Structures are given as C-alpha cells and as structure tokens.
Amino acid sequence: MKCHHCDSQATVHLTQIINGQMHKMDLCEACAQEKGVTNPDNLSIGNLLDENPSKVDASTASMTCESCGTTHQDFKKGGRLGCEACYHVFRPVLEPLLDGMHAGVKHFGKVPSRSVKKKSDDDSEELLNKELKKAVEEENYEKAAKLRDRLKKLQAKSSASA
Amino acid sequence: MFHDLFFSKSKSKVPKPCPIALSTRVRLARNLSEFPFPGRAESGQKKAVLSKCMSALGKVKPLLSSTSVELDELSELDRQILVEKHLISLELSQSEESGGVVLSNDRACSVMVNEEDHLRIQVLANGLDFSKVWKLADSLDSGIESSLDYAFDSQLGFLTACPTNLGTGMRASVMMHLPGLVMSKNMDKVINAVNHLGIAVRGLFGEGSDASGSIFQISNQQTLGESESAILERLEMTLENIVHQERLAREKLSEDDGLRLTDKISRAVGSLKTSYLIQSSEAMDHLSLIRLAADFGYLPEKFRALADRMFIEVQPGHVQLSAGKPIEPGERDRLRAETLRKEFLRMPQLNLNAQVD
Description:
The structure holds 2 protein chains of 2 kinds. By secondary structure, chain A is mainly alpha-helical. Chain A has helices spanning 29-35, 45-50, 58-61, 72-78, 86-89, 91-101, 113-137, 141-161; strands spanning 12-18, 21-27. A two-stranded antiparallel sheet of chain A has the order 1-2. In chain A, helix 7 (113-137) runs antiparallel to helix 8. The longest helix of chain A is centred in the C-terminal third of the chain and has 25 residues, at 113-137. Chain B is of the alpha+beta class. Chain B is globular. The chains are: A mainly alpha, B alpha+beta.
C-alpha cells in the first residue's frame, strides 16, 4: 500500500470518523511523523482537516471569532482556540471533531458552583424580563410593578456579589 | 545447573506488593471567563491574568503555605530543575512572559499560570492513589473557583485552549516502572492495546520524551463525555491490568532466562560502581535494573528508594545544580558518574537466593 502523500510504503493506517463518516488514510512513517499522527498529543486537528478538504464547506472557511480574532485558518493550523467565545463560533466544525476525539460530546463531570449560580441568576433575570414585558403588553400594571421590584432586587444582589 | 538453583522458586520471587507504580498525578486545565486563552492574549491581558490568579491562589487552603514564583525571575537552570522535578511543564518553562507557578510547601500541589491554559492545577502523590489525589485536586479547584470565574459551558464543560482537554479538563496519570514488559519486548503490544481504550503512554517527561529507565507515564486521553470518577475508574482498571502483565513478564523472564536477567542486573551494578563518564539515559537504564533487583529482593529495600531519588538526580539540570553552575554535557557526564560511584559504593552483593512473599 502506498502513502497518501508520497510513493513510499504506507505503514501507518489512520481511521477517522468525521460527521459520522469513516475516512481511512494510509501514510508512510515520515509523512505520519510530519503530520503528528504518531504522537496523539501533538496531533493537530487542523492538519488532519487539511486532508479532508471536502469535509469543510466554504461557509466555515471564513469563520472568525470577533471576540479574540481567531480565524478558522488559525484553528486549523494550531489546533487551539483563542477564547471562550471561539467555542460558539467554531461549534459547527468542532462538534464532529469532538465526536472522534472523546468518549462523548456532552460534559458529565464537575460543574463549578459559581458559574451555575450565575447562570441560574441570568436565567431568572431573563425570565422575569420576559414576564414583565408580557405583563406590560397585557396592561396588567399591578403584576408588572411586582415583577419590576423582583427584577431590581435580583440585579442589586448580583451586582453586590460581583 | 547453578542458575536453576537461583531461579527454581522464581514465582515466589516476584514480590506481591510490587511498587510498579511510582507516582500518581491529576492535572486540571481551567481558564478565566473574561480573558482570551494565553496563546491569544496580549501582554497586558496575560499580566492581568497572572496577578488575578496569583492573588486568588494564595488564599486557597492547600496553598496557604506555599511558594509563588514568576517565571521571569528564574534562571534557565532553575526552570529546568522544576521540570525535572515534575513541578512545572516544559511548555511553562519556555514561557516568555507572565508565566507563574505556586507550589505548596509539601510539593504535593502545583498550580501553573499562563501555560497553555490560564490555570493548570496539579496534585502529585507517591504510589498509586487516585482517590486521594483527585480529592485534593477537586477541593483545590473548588477553592480557586470560589474567587475566580471559570470559562464553563453546560454542554461542553470546562473550556480549554485545546479541544483535547475539553470537558473535565482532567488528565490523570501514573508513572510506572515496567522493565519486565520492556525486556520481554511486550511494551508495544501494551501501548497498542491501551491506546484503543483511550489511554496514552508516554516517557518519563511526558510528550515526546523517550522511555529511558523503562519508566512510562500512562494517562487518560479523553476528557469529555464521562465524569471524572468514570475516567479514573477506567484508567485504574487498565493500570491494574498493566501491573498484572508486568508481574507475569517478570516471572517469565526469571523462569525462562534467569541467568541473563542476573547478568543484566549485575552489569548495571558494575557500571554504577565503576563508570567515569555516564549519560543520563544510560544511568537511568542501570537504575531501572537496581529498582528491579530491589523488587526481586536481590537488594535491600532502601536501594529502590535510592534508585528513585537518583532517577531525578542524574537529570542534566540536577547535575548542574550539584555543580552549583551551568556546565557542559561532557563535564556533566563526569560529575554524574562520580556521584553515582559515591552513592553506590556500599552496595552489597546481590542476594540471589532472596525469598520475597
């Protein structure tokens, strides 16, 4: 069997599952080394993506994280993301990769207590806002006043704890 | 034949509580929510992360009695020594700006700042003890989180610079001494088998390091999709299996090729006692055999501890530390050999009739 990149004998056989489809690639020792295939920790996801250009459609090529400036090219090259927001921006290209990389795509481990509290506060703030808007629309001013008071209390609490 | 006498009871010669596992480590990768990850952060942002983290870390219980160091303050040699002691990573040691580390005074906990992620929380213990190490890492992490906002997503877990650490952000590893599997040429099979279980095998100094001294770092590869306890359980089961395979390999070596094994150990003793120039990888291979001899009961227990200590002392940074200054590789080889000759001068004859239960 010949190497995918050169005519040498292929000794490394890589199987990847991307978007639920299996892709096989045969590489010689030298090309495998160059691509980082022999050391799973240095395996650049980007390098491998390069070998499957058809799997990255044109719409993802221009992706850029507005928060930190990381581009899809940066991620392909270095295999690293730049910030929290990158995980939202690059989610479409990331998800199929995670599937092949990990035991699952959903977190089942520890949940930090602060972020949970913050999230539930955010959620209830959002919920109260929605209810308030609805009450105003329905001209139920008594309910709206109560909701506004609850919202104010919640905001005061969160700004005090921050 | 005379060596049959030595090895006829070989099965009982492999000690049951064989300390094949040298040390256990759990490392958690964490990032602060409001800053870009270190690889993308600007100089000012990295500085802000460093000062924020350093002040938060000093208040956490396991780090109340600790030493905080900014990498800029350290010489190249100091950095190398911390790497050799496994207290910081090679990546942090090469940090050009705003890298930091907080080390608990008992050296059990180390938290790196501005490595690949903002925080790398690491807990180390001797032997194989995941429950103790995880418990401490978990409480240290919770303590830090009580004053810092982590980058966390309810679907993806802890967000890390590299998606290979995503989710739990946890890398658990055990340093194992596997001379039986190396000598019987079974290590490749073991590596292949465990790779299929999502478990990685590396050399003593992690990524890219060789397997001098038959010491391997065995760790989980996957961090997302399972809880920390499920990951640790699976890793522990695999490690128990490896310990079992190592024991079998040792038994088989001493049964089938006992004379060669004795010869190897004896030559290692000779080299350590008589060398005048020795490189670190050669020294580690000899030390590995001293450790094995202690496991077989051929040498008193204290020589295992001596071998473990020397594994670190023969590293290039530590040799220079004992010289008190940076020195060239050739001079290091001379000094390393001198230290080993002194340390092993009083090594007794191998007790080949040793009975170990």
